[in-house]
Design brief:
Elements lengths: L1 H14 E2 L7 E4 L1 H8 L10 H10 L3 E14 L8 E17 L2
Antiparallel strand pairs: 1-4, 2-4, 3-4
Length: 101
Amino acid sequence: MDDYKEEMKDIILQYYSPTPDGGDNIQMQTGAVLNWFRGVIPNEPITQHDVFDILKELGFKHSQKILTEKVIIKKKTQWTEEISEEQEVGRILVWNLYERT
């Protein structure tokens, strides 16, 4: 399994950096990173624990992401425009992966 972890480190560093070097910040949960790896690494030998370990070891940081949804305050009529606002519906922790340019 350690061979897979080394391969995972090489792969993630090909596409992402733990620091903002001009690339876009892509925020993903550990499970999403695991699913991303499953495109090239077999399902069984790796777990979310492996993903967590390599992200921490490589220096990736996490942050809180606020989830929002659009809530309609006043519906559109033929005389008025719709009035809506974004309201918080939850918070999650995500890893910050910066795309390499």
